[in-house]
Automatic annotation (TrEMBL):
Transmembrane segments: 18-35, 56-75, 87-116
Location of the Mechanosensitive ion channel transmembrane helices 2/3 domain: 63-103
Annotated Mechanosensitive ion channel MscS C-terminal domain residues: 177-260
Organism, as annotated: Flammeovirga pectinis
GO molecular function, one term: mechanosensitive monoatomic ion channel activity
SUPFAM superfamilies cross-referenced by the UniProt entry: Mechanosensitive channel protein MscS (YggB), C-terminal domain, Mechanosensitive channel protein MscS (YggB), transmembrane region, Sm-like ribonucleoproteins
A family per Pfam: MS_channel_1st
Keyword annotations from UniProtKB, A to Z: Cell membrane, Membrane, Transmembrane, Transmembrane helix
Protein name stated in the entry: Mechanosensitive ion channel
GO cellular component: plasma membrane
InterPro entries for this protein: LSM_dom_sf, MS_channel_1st, MS_channel_C, MscS_archaea/bacteria_type, MscS_beta-dom_sf, MscS_channel_2nd, MscS_channel_C_sf, MscS_channel_TM-2
């Protein structure tokens, strides 16, 4: 009987000492799980507004849930009176080991998070990154997929995208087309400029804003006077306008008897200083 009484007294002492802390810890964990569910739901809705990639949505939703649950669990056992210093140190060591093992993958995931947050491009936009030009098809968990004008799919790691230079041609909706044209030194530059301007001014795809079409001299080359035609068009008209304008410019210059030169070399020979055999040798060397 005395042993039972002693046992009951021990239980009462333990409860009076740790009972309140345990109740606080349990209450904290219960309330924390409710808050975690609410925050996870909010995060899920916000990510869905910015991305339709289910893998990306599920990953960040689960990452939020697990991270908050771990924090709440550690806080709960600490409130219950359990020493958490060694437990936190163990979690830190495990996290460091996992981080080192998955360094490349984590960099891509972090890059995906930055792309999702900053949104330098969206699905369907035309971009240039890391030397690749194409339309964004998908922004995944580890990589972004673009489709090039040659209908090839290129998979780019998100880590390199987040740390690289991204050119977004679709954000403004328009782009400038630069068309190089060379004419002979004997041609009239003003006449050639008027001919080229007439070609593009009759094209309905050419925009007058933010800048009207212009043709100017860019270089005096070895065999030609280099002109450049500049005009703004909508992004979807870029390739068609570029190729068709090159053809139309060639036809217009031919119709106006303006020569488009090819590389050539002029040889001056002074009489009496070079024998015929020497001329033959010289021509052979040039060939």
């Amino acid at each position: 009987m005395e042993e039972i009484t002693q046992y009951q007294d021990d239980i009462l002492r333990l409860f009076s000492r740790y009972g309140l802390q345990m109740i606080q810890g349990i209450a904290f964990f219960w309330i924390g799980t409710k808050i975690t569910k609410r925050i996870t739901l909010i995060v899920n809705k916000q990510i869905k507004k910015k991305s339709t990639n289910h893998a990306l949505i599920d990953f960040f939703t689960q990452l939020t849930s697990v991270s908050l649950t771990v924090i709440i669990f550690i806080g709960s056992i600490d409130m219950a009176g359990v020493e958490t210093t060694s437990f936190i140190a163990m979690l830190g060591s495990a996290g460091l080991a996992v981080g080192l093992a998955l360094q490349g993958s984590l960099a891509n995931i972090a890059g995906g998070a930055l792309l999702l947050t900053l949104r330098p491009f969206r699905k369907g936009e035309f971009i240039e990154v890391n030397g690749h030009l194409g339309t964004v098809i998908d922004v995944g968990l580890f990589a972004t997929t673009i489709q090039t004008p040659k209908m090839r799919q290129v998979f780019l790691p998100n880590g390199s995208l987040a740390g690289g230079v991204i050119k977004n041609y679709s954000r403004e909706g328009i782009t400038r087309v630069d068309v190089p044209i060379g004419i002979s030194y004997g041609a009239d530059i003003k006449e050639a400029r008027n001919v080229l301007l007439n070609v593009i001014m009759n094209d309905k795809r050419v925009l007058k804003d933010p800048e009207a079409p212009v043709v100017f001299v860019t270089n005096l080359g070895d065999s030609s006077v280099d002109l450049q035609l500049r005009a703004f068009v909508k992004i979807e008209d870029y390739w068609g306008f570029l190729f068709e304008t090159l053809e139309e410019c060639k036809i217009a210059l031919d119709n106006n008897k303006i020569e488009i030169p090819f590389p050539q070399r002029v040889l001056h020979i002074e009489k009496g200083e070079t024998e015929t055999s020497d001329i033959g040798d010289l021509m052979a060397d040039i060939a």
